[in-house]
Amino acid sequence: MLSRNAIFKRRRTSRGERGFTLIEILVVITIIAIIMAIVGPRVLNYLAESKVKAAKIQIQSFSSALDLFNLDTGRYPTTAEGLDALVKPQAAIPAWNGPYLKGNSVPEDPWGHAYLYRSPGEHDVYDIQSYGSDGREGGTGTAADIASWKR
Predict the structure, then answer these.
(1) 31-64 burial: b if 16+ Cβ within 10 Å, else e
(2) Residue 75: phi, psi to the nearest 5?
(3) pLDDT tens digits, residue range 82-109?
(4) Rounded Cα distance, 10 and 108, in Å
């Protein structure tokens, strides 16, 4: 049988193992906050840069599809026909052999805006452009314009 001192010691140790003190919890929360303050902006920056890269890749994909359209029809879609001519057959284009893009619609840029398409373009045979994260012409950083003639 256990003596009175043994029972008292057992109770004391079990009380000390019940949980964390308020100071210990505050220290852990502070460490987590410091790590997030250091890592958070870098992660957000990588996400913003990845959207810019995705827009550039989509524009290259459109360029390839437009070149295939040109091989089949002998011309590029007009500005009025737009990029929709790559996914939807039109009666005015008898040699159309598409769809030239996967899916039933032309994707929007990574920020949810429609790409601008002009043919004939001001800079090339055709111009494809995204206005970036702000959806307005001009800008810097992720709000900068992304265009087919800027590679």
Answers:
(1) eeeeeeeeeeeeeeeeeeeebbeebbebbebbee
(2) -160, 170
(3) 999 899 887 788 888 878 888 878 999 9
(4) 67
- Of the candidates 138, 105, 115, which has an alpha carbon nearest to the alpha carbon of residue 63? 115
The contacts of residue 76 (CB under 8 Å, 6+ apart) are 66, 69, 70, 119, 125, 126
Which H or E element spans position 37? helix 22-73
> Could you tell me the CA-to-CA distances from 101 to 31, 146, 151 in Å, in that order?
48, 20, 21
Q: Which domains, ranges and CATH numbers included, belong to the chain?
A: 23-147 (3.30.700.10)
What does DSSP assign to residue 147?
Answer: E
User: Residue 12: what residue type?
Assistant: R
Give Cα 117 distance to the centre of its chain: 21
pTM of the model: 0.68
Helix H, strand E, coil C: the string for 5-33 is HHHHHHHHHHHHCCCCCHHHHHHHHHHHH
The residue whose two tokens read 């052999």 is 97
Token pair, residue 22, equals 């308020």
- Kindly list the distances between the CA atom of residue 17 and the CA atoms of 8, 13, 21, in Å, as whole numbers in the listed order: 15, 6, 10
